[in-house]
Design goal:
By secondary structure, this protein is mainly beta. The protein has helices at 36-40, 89-92; strands at 13-16, 22-29, 54-60, 65-71, 75-77, 93-95, 101-103. 8% of the residues lie in helices and 32% in strands.
Length: 109
């Protein structure tokens, strides 16, 4: 499988292209790295390609917060500047003087 450069970076806020949720990237897999059952559970007509980056997100929608695993083809940058409420964000990230999310020192968490 060919490895692609990731379009989004750790700490970047993104939105799902099709579904109503958004989140912050906390890890990136250069290609699909989840179970075959997970991949096959996605309806074939919207199933993403495996040969692209996949992102681990602290995600949220109007009702709840959760961790999501999303293909690059299904994400777009979120430019809303709306705050995120996922409880794990503050554990892994801090905002710099420009409001950008930066990873906290890994030794501290």
């Amino acid at each position: 499988m060919k490895c692609h450069n990731a379009k989004f970076s750790i700490g970047q806020v993104v939105r799902h292209r099709r579904y109503s949720f958004r989140g912050v990237v906390f890890d990136v897999d250069p290609v699909f790295d989840n179970t075959e059952e997970w991949w096959l559970s996605i309806p074939e007509e919207v199933r993403p390609r495996k040969d692209q980056p996949f992102y681990h997100l602290f995600a949220e929608n109007d009702e709840t917060e959760y961790v999501a695993y999303v293909s690059e083809q299904n994400l777009v940058p979120d430019t809303s500047d709306e705050p995120l409420r996922h409880p794990e964000i503050d554990e892994y990230f801090e905002r710099d003087e420009n409001g950008i999310l930066r990873e906290r020192d890994p030794i501290l968490h």
